[in-house]
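User: I'm writing a tutorial on reading structure tokens. Could you give me a worked example: one chain, its sequence, then its tokens, then a sentence or two explaining what the tokens reveal?
Assistant: Sure. Here is the example chain.
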Amino acid sequence: MPKIKQTELSTLEEAFNTGLGLGYVLDFSDRTFAIYFDEEFGIGIDDDKYKSGGTSKGKRLRTFMAMEPGNTVARVLRSLWDYRAAIVAKQGMADNQNLSDRYFQIVHRLEGDPSTASTDAIDRFSDNETLDELVAAIQRDISANKPQAALDRLHTYCMKKFAHLLAAHGETCGHDDPLHSRAGRYIKRLEAEEQIQGISLKIMKSSISVFDEFNVIRNNKSFAHDNDIVGLHEARFIFDSISSILRFIRSIEASRFGG
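And here are its predicted structure tokens:
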């Protein structure tokens, strides 16, 4: 299990320091810290096992990072950085590129095996038991290095995600609306609201055709039906590519809604 080095702890503490004092993590209270870990990761950060090094939020986070597998810690750190980015954006401040580089060096080291995809972009975006089970199933498939098995569930996740995003922007979504249609409508909303511009907008518009092809993969090359499925490396590439789009969308929405 990868361990956090002392120099790395200093970098993490620098990232999480918002001037509230020793033991704080970003702007979390004890209550919101527990809610965040439960809703985002299904982790009880208030469990006694995480209090062995102290009961403050910072000390519980340290103990969590020392006890849990590297890929789990990396997933939490990626999510906390997105949360931090929303705080920085709300304050109208420029982020620290040097800190970002040092922070993600830690994350990449903890993620370890490059042959295993990351599920950090697959978040629990609403309080829904079906969504919880869907996210857990995707995480199990990826942890087992079976991205082929995850593709069908990833498609379902994207269908739910874009319906949720459209609703957040005041639009309804029909039950039979295909994935690329949902994605296209959402991207048009972002363009109209000037949330993305320039090359980012062009990349996002090109992703509509990616989601259209993802429909084909889901129907004809995944476990959704009795299909000949795509190979491991291609499935990993598809999973990572879709995840990168979802990750960017999450950062946009975090800034828009304040996390």
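What the tokens reveal: The CA atoms of residues 50 and 60 lie 5 Å apart. The radius of gyration is 19 Å.
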